[in-house]
Design brief:
63% of the residues lie in helices and 6% in strands.
Length: 115
């Protein structure tokens, strides 16, 4: 059984984009991406030659940071905001799951009563 060598392209966490490709897609300078790496906001993969490689998810984070910086936030504030936004998204997902489980249990109890 062989694996699809292009399958990694579908993985949003697989680092496939060079710094120049990532910068072009985001409309930023490469220095911006380097600064996010230095600040610990992004942790790009490295090629065998040591060059940074970025994933789709990392580009999404960089775009979110860029937006916050454009709104006037400092980088440290942007990092905190990103963390809080991610925590909120996780909490909402947990609440949705709990609600779905509760609703399924209610439907099951209702079905048991009609049998």
């Amino acid at each position: 059984m062989t694996t699809d060598p292009l399958g990694a392209l579908d993985d949003p966490d697989h680092p496939v984009l060079t710094m120049s490709q990532a910068a072009e897609l985001l409309g930023v300078q490469a220095a911006f991406l380097r600064s996010l790496d230095s600040a610990g906001v992004l942790h790009p993969g490295r090629s065998s030659g040591g060059h940074r490689r970025y994933s789709r998810n990392q580009l999404e984070v960089a775009a979110r940071v860029r937006g916050l910086l454009d709104d006037g936030h400092q980088l440290t504030s942007a990092q905190v905001i990103l963390g809080l936004q991610d925590d909120l998204a996780d909490a909402r997902a947990d609440a949705d799951t709990a609600r779905d489980e509760r609703d399924a249990a209610r439907r099951e109890r209702g079905a048991d009563r009609t049998d």
